[in-house]
Design brief:
423 residues; 8-stranded mixed β-sheet; 6-stranded parallel β-sheet
């Protein structure tokens, strides 16, 4: 993992080409907005370029700008959009003249960034793990990982090509770094993420909130309140989590609240209707309310083994609650010894056994262990390491005022110092 003692060497203009950013998103949106807030504190300029409905330049604070360029919606999830105009993306990068460019998706937008002819240093930040999210999930019960990798050799060639186009490939967990290195990517490294300082804490635990939540699940205060939080999509495996918790409720006093939004909501609600001890709730958009619910729960249950960081698991750890998580993927990085357990990824019966094991080991003892280990790595610590790594990649050039895009492809983008008339 990269760390650097010199945090503030010189100011940089950092452009994040954020293909996964959406106002309706989850972990990536949280991360990007934290980065925009951190920009001025670290003496840098951060410009996020995201696919949007129209061209907009929105000032989000000192040295922090969100730029959207017109892009089509994803057919499978219309809350998200994707970059489809390489010339327009290159013109936007030319206009902002960055010192460093991030690409946050290993798909086509990373190739577009890699082909850009600017002089900035570049990083590919792995906010997605497509092989774990799709190939390993679909075929993991049929073939070993090395055989699946051979079937997807074309994608591995794509990843190795991206590695040659970027100065570094940043991963948020060591398992992904090791897997990329073993697949022939020459330059992966681990820079772990963190949580927002001061927002999540065991001190936000509310006995009344816990009692009320258990009551909605037909349980009294002696019951166990499990919590699941995340986007309702297939790779999150929420159907498995709901069924496992529901079946455990037939034998043990446990209940589960599942909080989130997504296209699988109706399917999840239909599963929840079969059980008295599980419920599906809308996403909680107020972060302080989410922090209170996390701290007031008895354990976080997570179903996804393909997370690149698993922000919600880090937030649960910071809230002082145990974890019940898959035995592979980023969530397990947050597991504290004596405060939770793992189960075989993707195996519903194994998850049922893990919940029962958690109950039998004593939830209160495990929560005490979680509280003792609740001092998390903060997002500021992550950004300090990240920005220092970017500074170490090469000497910076003097940031010039943004230029008019060639051919009038996009409107004039003003230099940051003059951003006074934008939203």
């Amino acid at each position: 993992m990269f760390t650097a003692p010199e945090r503030f060497v010189r100011p940089m203009r950092i452009v994040d080409v954020s293909a996964f950013y959406s106002p309706f998103g989850g972990g990536v949106r949280t991360y990007v907005e934290a980065k925009l807030r951190a920009a001025a504190r670290f003496g840098h300029e951060v410009i996020v370029i995201a696919p949007g409905q129209a061209h907009e330049v929105v000032r989000r604070g000192p040295g922090a700008v969100l730029v959207t360029i017109p892009s089509p919606t994803l057919p499978l999830d219309r809350r998200y959009r994707y970059f489809d105009d390489e010339r327009l993306l290159h013109a936007t990068l030319d206009a902002w003249q960055p010192d460093h460019v991030e690409a946050s998706s290993p798909w086509s937008s990373a190739t577009m960034v890699g082909r850009w002819q600017g002089s900035a240093t570049r990083s590919l930040v792995m906010h997605a793990d497509p092989l774990a999210a799709y190939a390993y999930r679909w075929l993991g019960g049929l073939a070993p990982i090395h055989a699946i990798d051979r079937c997807f050799s074309r994608f591995w060639r794509h990843l190795r090509g991206l590695g040659r186009m970027f100065d570094t490939v940043i991963c948020a967990n060591g398992e992904l770094t090791r897997r990329l290195a073993s697949g022939g990517i020459a330059n992966p490294e681990t820079i772990r993420m963190g949580v927002e300082a001061g927002l999540f804490s065991p001190t936000f635990r509310s006995a009344e909130l816990r009692r009320s939540a258990l009551s909605t699940l037909g349980l009294d205060c002696d019951g166990l309140l499990l919590l699941g939080i995340g986007r309702f999509s297939a790779e999150k495996r929420w159907e498995m989590v709901l069924r496992a918790a529901g079946e455990c409720g037939r034998k043990l006093p446990v209940g589960l609240l599942l909080v989130g939004e997504g296209r699988k909501r109706r399917t999840l609600e239909m599963i929840a209707d079969r059980y008295d001890n599980v419920a599906v709730l809308p996403a909680i958009t107020t972060r302080s309310d989410l922090a209170s619910l996390l701290a007031s729960s008895d354990a976080l249950v997570h179903g996804c083994e393909s997370e690149t960081f698993c922000l919600v698991a880090a937030e649960a750890r910071a809230s002082g609650i145990p974890l019940i998580v898959p035995n592979t993927g980023a969530a397990v990085d947050q597991l504290v010894e004596g405060a939770g357990t793992t189960y075989a990824a993707g195996r519903e019966r194994s998850l049922e056994d893990a919940i029962a094991r958690f109950v039998n080991r004593g939830p209160e003892l495990q929560r005490a262990a979680a509280v003792r280990a609740s001092r998390p790595r903060t997002m500021d610590e992550h950004f300090a390491d990240l920005f220092a790594r970017y500074q170490a990649l090469g000497p910076g050039h003097v940031t010039q005022p943004a230029a008019l895009a060639v051919g009038g492809a996009i409107p004039m983008l003003e230099p940051l110092a003059a951003l006074t008339n934008i939203k």
